[in-house]
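Predict structure. Chain length: 177.
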Amino acid sequence: MKRVVFIVAPEMFRDEEYCKPKQILEDAGINVITASVKTGELIGRFGFKAISSTLIGTINPDNFNAIAYIGGSGCEIFFNNPYALKLANIFFEQRKPVASICIAGVILANSGILKNKKATVYIDGKDSLLKGGAIYMGNSLEVDGGIITANGPQVAEEFGKAILKILESKFTRVFCN
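Prediction complete.
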């Protein structure tokens, strides 16, 4: 069974950016694990309660097929979190899909993996993407190799479907340029 780890802020994550992609992946038989800086209950912006079963610092990338960073203002705690940045790099180096939605794209930019990659982000993060070397196109969803970025909750469903599509493809073909 394929496994994806969602990196989620302990509070103020965007409920729909978590729920819709998670449901799409789980409906396809993929096991989604929620990780954060704490275990237990996480509270979304609109009150949705998610359960973190894993601390971000204990994630072993070898146990997962992809990683997704969930947006919302709370994810700012991951912008310079050494574990969040390191995980993005390890998954990228292992040719595994790396995804972010909304302002969480700043994490990928800060990790350095967006250099010369098409990417998008919630508009407040545009300068960070450009600083990180990304090619910002202004689209609501971008897929460049194994990197999936989306700009907000309105594309949460498409974001989930894009992750699923890459998981169903051959990773080596996805990452070849």
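Summary: The mean pLDDT is 95.
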